[in-house]
Design a protein that fits this description.
By secondary structure, the protein is an alpha+beta fold. About 30% of the residues lie in helices and about 35% in strands.
Length: about 240
């Protein structure tokens, strides 16, 4: 009879312990070194067991932080108003953001069309990672008309909030005019930022947000980790 490989036995043991509640969603597993000592194997064997659990969606590796038991997907409402921090706080999670870059350049054809600008008009591009309880939830890229919001990059860097930054330029409210949702597979760069494997399922939204007068203020792309979020399309509550 064929023998069970060591890494399979370790994966099965950890799977049983997760199922029994020894490790709860969001808990960090012991380190590779600790698991190596516990099971009397080398780190390569432990790493193979953890990779098997990750493939099954039971754990998630966070770059530089360790391996964590996968949490239940976060319900993320896609209403008329786009408020990342409010959405996560309503779900009982702590929001945060890592800014990857801010730049000002000429708009490409799609950006100019979405923002109702002449092709080649200057735009600000704001890119980063949205975090929930310290875990990467999504990558984002937002594009704004530069002539209307000349100092927006500085405001975004200081406030770390699109809502607060736009308010400095008199845009006290903005709503979602359109959103296109598409299933994608993570590229190597996206996988690195989202702490998932290359080719893992992700959900991409492409949105245009407008001010109360109907003028476009933001053209945004967001790539959500497919196993960490459930996008819920719902109308905003009256008066919200």
């Amino acid at each position: 009879m064929a023998r069970t490989s060591l890494w399979t036995a370790i994966a099965n043991t950890l799977r049983d312990e997760i199922g029994a509640g020894h490790y709860r969603p969001g808990d960090k597993l012991p380190t590779e070194a600790e698991l190596s000592r516990r099971f009397g194997v080398n780190r390569h064997t432990v790493r193979r067991a953890l990779a098997d659990l990750a493939e099954a969606g039971l754990v998630q590796a966070r770059r530089g932080a360790g391996v964590f038991v996968a949490a239940r997907p976060t319900d993320y409402p896609l209403g008329r108003r786009v408020r990342f921090h409010q959405n996560l706080k309503a779900a009982g999670q702590s929001p945060d953001k890592t800014i990857l870059s801010t730049a000002t350049r000429m708009a490409d054809t799609r950006e100019a069309e979405a923002l109702a600008l002449p092709e080649g008009a200057p735009v600000h591009v704001y890119e980063g990672i949205s975090l929930a309880d310290g875990a990467a939830l999504a990558l984002f890229r937002s594009v704004f008309p530069a002539e209307r919001f000349p100092d927006l990059p500085a405001a975004l860097t200081e406030t770390r909030s699109v809502t607060a930054a736009l308010a400095r330029f008199g845009v006290t409210d903005y709503t979602r005019a359109s959103t296109r949702l598409t299933a994608k597979l993570a590229t190597p760069t996206q996988a690195l930022h989202l702490s998932c494997r290359e080719g893992a399922p992700i959900l991409r939204t492409v949105s245009i947000n407008i001010d109360p007068n109907g003028r476009p203020v933001e053209y945004g792309h967001t790539w959500f980790a497919g196993d960490r979020v459930s996008l819920v399309v719902t109308p905003d509550a009256p008066g919200s």
